[in-house]
Amino acid sequence: MNKAILNIEVQEFINSHINSDVSSLLLKGLPFEGIDAKLIIEQIEAKKRSEKKLPTWFKTENIYYPNKLNTEQTSSEITAQYKADLVSGKNLIDLTGGFGVDAFYFSKQVENVIHCEIKSGLSKIVAHNFDQLQVSNVECINENGIETLKKLDQQFDWIYIDPSRRDDSKNKVFLITDCTPNVKTYQGLFLKYAENVMIKTSPLLDISATLLEISNVKEIHVVAVNNEVKELLWILERNYSGSVLIKTVNIQKENQQTFDFYYDEESTAKVEYTRPSNYLYEPNSAILKAGAFKSVSYDLGVKKLHKHSHLYTSKTLIDFPGRRFNIENVVPFNKKAFSKLKIQKANITTRNFPLSVSNIRKKFKVKDGGTIFLFFTTNLEDEKIILICSKI
Q1: 3-state helix/strand/coil string of 290-313
Q2: CA–CA separation, 240 and 137 (whole Å)
Q3: Does some domain include residue 93?
Q4: Least confident of 40-44, 228-232, 300-304
């Protein structure tokens, strides 16, 4: 951590060049001696990336940013706030603190937070930034989180861990047994020292396979932001052995779409199939990731078009956690039927269909955009069909 970065003139330079072309800045040369120009450029780029992802940090003076990898891997403020709403109590330890965004939000819900970070430079950066953010109830410890947990030898209300998804060669991994630390190995230690444990994992992780690796799972939260799944949160509770509740959330600008179901009830949930009716429903990405294909049909009283299509329909309009459409027309999938519609521009989605969107556009010469929504899918009689819809 080079404290010269925090000099007033350097900070003013960073702030005034947030939208500048950094390559041009390097060619011109930077007017500061004793500071590596690349370090200043790194600060400019990191602050720019934080404008939407970390607005609190972006708006706070004298924030020091770490390298690109640390800023990319950190939670957004939106997902950190969601995690913080799940915890409470007197003390929480974050075993893999990183840039400290999660710890910052945990500090608003828990009396005392310990932030463990094995990298000395990053730990100093986080401690400095917490001072700038006026956070006084977080203790930054520059040590391996697992070793700190053992050394402290005390009880916590919560343990939080976000295992590193990079191997020794800096390649991306996502299986829990490939991440560092390996939570499968240490889950017994976590539950020894905390009543509750929260583990953040990659959205790519297979839920069914991972449930075979981790015990005491009480809840799994599938968290999406603007219909993109960002993370899976595994809530473990000491001595818990009941059904796993899966909670899906799609955080949008205006609202949150939520849907909850029990993992072991999904396989036995009864589903009805039908031809397309008046309204079409497409589940959001969190529900699709959670695999709630039967539960969403049974619980919300909507019927499926096909076992593998994951599109739903109803005669009357309902509130649904996903996109909703009026079905204007249904035609068979062939060039003659489609040409009669005279559609030259539309939004295209495929579900359980052999052709890709790009191939369909090429075949039917349809441009992207407009107010028409076309769903190419398969009905309950295994016929390929096209649904012509308008968005609600």
Answers
A1: HCCCCHHHHHHCCEECCCCCCCEE
A2: 30
A3: yes
A4: 40-44
CB-CB neighbours of 63 under 10 Å: 22
Q: How many CB atoms lie within 10 A of CB 228?
A: 11
Among positive and negative, which fits the CA dihedral 147, 149, 152, 153?
Answer: negative
- pLDDT tens for 353-373 read 999 999 999 999 999 999 999
> Nearest CA to 316 among 327, 332, 329?
327
For 370-388, the pLDDT digits (tens) are 999 999 999 999 999 999 9
Beta bridge partners of 256: 251
> In whole angstroms, what separates CA 214 from the centre of its chain?
20
Q: What single letter denotes the amino acid at residue 50? A: S
Given a contact cutoff of 8 angstroms between Cβ atoms, the answer to whether 73 and 101 are in contact is no
Q: How many residues does the chain have?
A: 392
**How many structural domains comprise the chain?**
3
Bridge-partner residues for 245, per DSSP?
Answer: 219, 262
Q: Print the domain residue range for 86.
A: 72-242
